[in-house]
Amino acid sequence: MRMSLLKPFSKLPGLNTANILLVEFEELFQQSLADALVEETAVTVNVRLAKNLPLPKENEEVRPRIDLVVFIINMTSELSFQSAEASLKYLDSGFFLGKVCFMVTNARNASVPTQRLDSVRKLAASLHCSLLFAEDQTPEGVTNAAERLLTILKVSAGLVPMTTALYLSNLTRCTVPPDIDQPTFD
Fold first, then answer.
1. Kind and range of the H or E element at 91?
2. Which distant-in-sequence residues (6+ apart) come within 8 Å of 23 by Cβ?
């Protein structure tokens, strides 16, 4: 099976349409998030789901332009982070101009090592991407996560006048404090 590099500007955008790709290794949160995203009525939101990248090359010609790629990382799973990190190389560099973000779930779980959260923060900061935290266990948490993603998606799809994805990414990107490598005393 041949795989392809996902490119952000290889296709024309749809009129009043935004396309989002949710990438989650465990596939636990992406379906409920997708259901909440398509409830948007102001614009047409198309949601694509993937376990990881690359996407198969077979249906590349019918695949719509992807306006935003969201990597959903479950903090209780090391595999989730590793899968997201490995998938990044299958994105064209143009996506890192405001068309990629990371969404973290289960960050409040006491069993999550602080090093894992630091690794996710460093990854998002190194790529100048947004890092969102989401509550995936309640309907309100899913709705809040969807609303935050919709805000970013509308900008990334060019549906917000006078605002670009690159401008928004400069305002929302993750930054790492200089003392992140210092030990924490919890």
1. none
2. 30, 50, 51, 52, 53, 69, 70, 71, 72, 84, 87
